[in-house]
Design goal:
By secondary structure, this protein is α/β, with parallel strands linked by helices. It folds into 2 domains: 263 residues, Aldehyde Dehydrogenase, Chain A, domain 1 (3-Layer(aba) Sandwich); 186 residues, 3-Layer(aba) Sandwich (Aldehyde Dehydrogenase, Chain A, domain 2). The chain is 39% helix and 23% strand. The strands form 7 sheets. Strands 15-18-19-14-13-21-22 form a 7-stranded mixed beta sheet, with helices on both faces. A 6-stranded mixed beta sheet has the order 10-9-8-11-12-24, sandwiched between helices. A hairpin with a 6-residue loop joins strand 4 and strand 5. Helix 2 packs across helix 6 and helix 3 runs antiparallel to helix 6. It is globular. The chain starts with 5 loop residues before the first strand and ends with a strand. One of its GO terms (molecular function) is lactaldehyde dehydrogenase (NAD+) activity. Pfam families: Aldedh. Part of the sulfo-TAL (or sulfo-SFT) pathway, a D-sulfoquinovose degradation pathway that produces sulfolactate (SL). Catalyzes the oxidation of 3-sulfolactaldehyde (SLA) to sulfolactate (SL). Belongs to the aldehyde dehydrogenase family.
Length: 475
């Protein structure tokens, strides 16, 4: 276990550099200083973009090398699993068991990206009406990519952007969430060791108002990949104009529990998945819609299971729920709960705050107009409402400005086939919660949940240019 304060540099054009300013990263549970990371300024950001442009133009990075670098990086992540998981737990407040899962997922994400690099092929186009012409396509890298990443998965969500960018042959500039940037720096160390070419991966730490804005306003960057709030996502799209962006934004994800399912099994799973990483997951179960006939039995089990979750030090292997990312965020959700209660909601368990730790909460009697229903809570909280017909349940799920993922528990085969066409979301999870994600699957939402798809195979297609080639065979 690390006992002294880490001093981290920035990875710029294949070198590790110090800067005049530093950003302090704290242990989210104890409040102790954990690391100090060099801060980028305007001059450094310009150097980073110059290096990325030069790398794209002058350094050959063939498919076989991309594959080897990504596979070596995956192996190095696996070898450094313990240290990486501890870093995630300390600076992100994520329970160590979940942090270990994140590292394991990141290894898999890099491996999948490596394999997808070998599948980047063009196609022959059938030619029916232009005699003497041979038509085909080739795929080439789009150019410099900028990734702006969140705090809640400081390794895997960075890897979900770095892996596809490198697999497609693009240089990438990472601007991680400052509160969990130590993990990203550690990832860059391993990518350097894996042999990533100079200028193909760089990391800049700084505020969105300075570093972020400079990245957005530089037209040499051709693609942006962002995970975060709808407000920032909209700002990115408005700022970059016709340049492309993949935006994975917020959600108040819902799960339906129909009358024909195993109520206890569903309640136990929802109790856990609503509180993973203290609910700070884009697809965390936030709204549950339960059939009237099983509401009482469902709530009995849900409340019991949530109340039994172990809350505390994320480095304790028995902890289920750690602190939120900051006391400010914990105070926010505390105020949302108070607001809901004053409007008629009932707290069945939890909801109390101590510092940045919030006891997992279950609420009923909720309604539209309450922030815990309408907005993305991003906290250890779940609200439960009931319905009479499946049509009513679908309408309740769709009555949202978001549309990332939704879950449904049912044994009705016909309903299972129909429901993906009825729900206004990017992913439908049958007989599991909205929180399920396999890293190789297409992942992205509709409405204010964003645009574009993550998942290596799908992200790569947004990071290559399809060039049509026409050969005149008669000349």
């Amino acid at each position: 276990m690390q006992s002294s304060i880490l001093k981290e540099k920035l990875f710029i054009n294949g070198e590790w550099i110090e800067t005049e300013g530093t950003h302090q990263v704290f242990n989210k549970y104890t409040g102790e200083l954990f690391s100090e990371i060099a801060l980028a300024d305007e001059k450094i950001v310009d150097q980073v973009i110059n290096a990325a442009v030069t790398a794209h133009k002058e350094i050959n990075f063939p498919v076989e090398q991309r594959y080897e670098v990504l596979m070596r990086a995956a192996d190095l992540l696996k070898q450094n699993q313990t240290a990486l998981a501890e870093t995630i737990a300390i600076e992100g407040g994520k329970p160590i068991s979940d942090a270990n899962v994140e590292v394991t997922r990141s290894v898999s994400t890099l491996q999948v990206a490596a394999e997808e690099a070998k599948k980047l092929t063009g196609e022959i186009i059938p030619n029916y009406n232009a005699p003497g012409r041979f038509l085909y396509t080739v795929k080439k890298p789009v150019g410099v990519v900028a990734a702006i990443t969140p705090f809640n998965f400081p390794l895997n969500l960075v890897v979900h952007k770095v892996g596809p960018a490198l697999a497609a042959g693009n240089p990438i500039i990472i601007k991680p969430a400052s509160d969990t940037a130590t993990t990203t720096v550690k990832l860059c160390e391993l990518l350097e060791e894996a042999g990533v070419p100079k200028g193909y991966v760089q990391c800049v730490v700084g505020s969105g108002r300075t570093v972020g804005e400079q990245l957005l306003n530089d037209e040499r960057i051709v693609h942006y990949t962002f995970t975060g709030s709808p407000a920032i996502g909209k700002h990115i799209q408005q700022t970059i104009g016709l340049r492309k962006a993949t935006l994975e934004l917020g959600s108040n994800s819902a799960t339906i529990v129909h009358h024909d399912t195993d109520v206890e099994k569903a309640a136990k799973k929802i109790a856990r998945m609503a509180n993973v990483n203290a609910g700070q997951v884009c697809i965390s179960v936030q709204r549950v819609f339960i059939h009237d006939s099983i509401k009482e039995a469902f709530l009995d089990t849900l409340v019991r299971e949530v109340a039994q979750l172990k809350v505390g030090d994320p480095l304790n292997k028995d902890t289920n729920v750690g602190p939120m990312i900051s006391e400010k965020e914990a105070r926010r959700i505390e105020s949302w709960i108070d607001e809901a209660v004053s409007a008629g909601a009932v707290v069945l368990t939890g909801g109390k705050r101590e510092g940045s730790v919030v006891q997992p909460a279950v609420l009923t009697n909720v309604k539209k107009g309450m922030k815990i229903v309408d907005e993305e809570a991003f906290a250890p909280i779940v609200s439960v409402s009931s319905y009479d017909t499946i049509e009513e349940a679908v309408a309740l799920v769709n009555d949202s400005k978001y549309g990332l993922q939704a879950g449904i528990y049912t044994s009705d085969l016909k309903l299972s086939y129909q429901i993906p066409y009825l729900l206004e979301v990017g992913g439908v999870i049958i007989n599991d919660t909205s929180s399920f994600r396999a890293d190789q699957m297409p992942y992205g939402g509709v409405k204010e949940s964003g645009n574009g798809k993550e998942g290596p195979a799908y992200a790569i297609q947004e990071l290559v240019e399809t060039v049509t080639v026409v050969v005149n065979l008669e000349e």
